[in-house]
Amino acid sequence: MSVATEAALIRGLFSQVEDIEEVASSLSEDDVRRHKLTDVVSRVLSGAPPVRPVVAGELLDLTEKTVKAWAREGVLEVVTSEPRMLLDAVRLHEVVHLVSELRRAGRTRGLLDEVHRRLSDASLLDREDLATSLDQMHRGEGRVVRSA
Fold first, then answer.
1. What is the widest separation between alpha-carbon atoms in the chain?
2. Residues 126, 134: Cα–Cα separation, whole Å
3. Using an 8 Å Cβ cutoff, are 27 and 76 in contact?
4. What is the number of other CB atoms lying within 10 angstroms of the CB of residue 53?
5. How far is CA 59 from CA 8, 24, 25, 67, 71, in A?
6. Measured distance CA(77)–CA(41) in Å, rounded
7. pLDDT in tens, the chain (148 residues)
């Protein structure tokens, strides 16, 4: 399959997922339909085939060399390295969102560091123990500890 064809297929898939995400985000946090739509997005992306770095480059508007460097740095998840590198579509979709958001905000330099930072922050916020602690803090539970 040609790079252009594969890029068009993945771009179309991501576009459909983004439409579903947009509808889901318009619903309240406690709406069951929002959770169902979010589950659909997860299943669709999980079932997507791995993506070649050259195709990821097309989607991210980056060179293949830069995409491979981002994969080595852990920003993009490598599914397999042999016989050729293939990238996880779920992580690629997340990174496409972040890069688009950064570019809309006028950021064109230092994208790797900023994307890496945001992914790290997001993974921290996904931790259940941190979420519990933040909820406790918002409710005023616990005690303030200050170092002397």
1. 64
2. 12
3. no
4. 25
5. 9, 23, 23, 10, 15
6. 18
7. 788 888 899 999 999 999 999 999 999 989 999 999 999 999 999 999 999 999 999 999 889 999 998 898 888 999 988 888 999 999 999 999 888 888 888 876 766 666 766 666 655 555 677 667 777 777 877 776 776 6
Render the chain in DSSP notation, one character per residue.
--HHHHHHHHHHHHHHHHHHHHHHHTS-TT-HHHHHHHHHHHHHHHTSPPB-HHHHHHHHT--HHHHHHHHHTTSS-EEE-SSS-EE-HHHHHHHHHHHHHHHHTT--SSHHHHHHHHHHHHHHHT-HHHHHHHHHHHTT-S------
Assess contact for 7 and 55: CB atoms under 8 A. Answer: yes
HSE toward the beta carbon, residue 114, CA cutoff 13 A: 15
Name the residue with tokens 């508007």.
61
User: What does the block give as tokens for 37?
Assistant: 């739509």
Contact criterion met (CB below 8 Å) for 48 and 36: no
Would you say 96 and 103 are in contact if contact means Cβ atoms under 8 Å apart?
A: no
